Amino acid sequence: MTYTLIGAAMEVHQQLGPGLLESVYQKALAYELQQRHVLFVEQQHLPV
């Protein structure tokens, strides 16, 4: 799982490069994870 997640993040960074808003990377990573069939919850609320 770690290999898949890091690979997805590296792919997003390679394609988009630095300097964009966090929300852009978030959407791109969500798309990449969907393409890799990884189940996840985007922006899960965690009470502190």
Q: Can you give keywords for this protein?
A:
48 residues, 2 helices, 60% helix
Task: Record the SSE blueprint.
Elements (H helix, E strand, L loop, with lengths): L1 H15 L5 H14 L13
Helix pairs in contact: 1-2
How would you sum up this structure, described in words?
This protein has 48 residues and is an all-alpha fold. It has one domain. Helices cover 60% and strands 0% of the residues. The longest helix is centred in the first third of the chain and has 15 residues, at 2-16. The chain is globular.
Unreliable residue runs:
none
| SSE string, helices as H and strands as E | HH
Oligomer: single chain
**Percentage beta strand:** under 5%
Shape: globular
Work out the helix count: 2
Span of the ends, CA to CA: 26 Å
Class by SSE composition? mainly alpha
What share of residues is helical? 55-70%
Count the strands?
0
Kindly report the average pLDDT value. 96
Q: Give a short account of the largest sheet.
A: none
Organism: Herpetosiphon aurantiacus (strain ATCC 23779 / DSM 785 / 114-95)
Protein name: GxxExxY protein
Pfam families: PDDEXK_3 (PF13366)
Provide a brief overview of the structure:
The chain has helices at 2-16, 22-35. It is mainly α and 48 residues long.
